[in-house]
Design a protein that fits this description.
The chain is α+β, with helices and mostly antiparallel strands. It is 25% helix and 43% strand. The chain has a domain at 2-21 and 60-129: Alpha-D-Glucose-1,6-Bisphosphate, Chain A, domain 4, CATH 3.30.530. It is built from three helices and eight strands. The two termini are 28 Å apart. This is Carbon monoxide dehydrogenase subunit G.
């Protein structure tokens, strides 16, 4: 299952956004209002839960300076990645788009497609808070 957020233009440089996304603590600012839990485990890992959803632990998997940050599920039960792509348009303007890639059975994919789509859209829209 592959989902992508709308492209969001943020009035920051790609270097600034890359550094901000590289700091796991900043993901709390991106979370939707219905967050029930957010806990930093270490510099590369955090756990969060939205109301009515199970807890999810994300780990920073890789980062390409100023262009991409890749997070992945820490558990193999729900194998997925969340990729933030940064496209600098000028020194103070960057387009950001999030991509969700998961390997789920068709029933699970059908159940989570809507909530995950809304979730990554909210994360992208909240990039302006960084």
């Amino acid at each position: 299952m592959n989902l992508e957020s709308p492209i969001v233009t943020v009035q920051k440089s790609s270097a600034y956004l890359f550094d901000a996304l590289g700091n796991i603590k900043n993901f709390e600012k991106l979370m939707p209002e219905n967050i029930a839990k957010f806990e930093v485990i270490d510099e590369n890992c955090f756990e969060f839960a939205l109301k009515g959803m199970p807890e999810i632990k994300l780990v920073k998997k890789s980062a390409t300076p100023n262009t991409e940050v890749v997070l992945g599920a820490a558990s193999s039960k729900l194998p997925f990645t969340l990729i933030a792509k940064l496209d600098e348009k000028s020194a103070e303007e960057t387009n950001v788009q999030l991509f969700f890639e998961g390997d789920f059975n068709p029933m699970m994919a059908m159940m989570i497609k809507g909530p995950i789509g809304k979730f990554i859209e909210t994360l992208a829209q909240n990039m302006v808070k960084l």
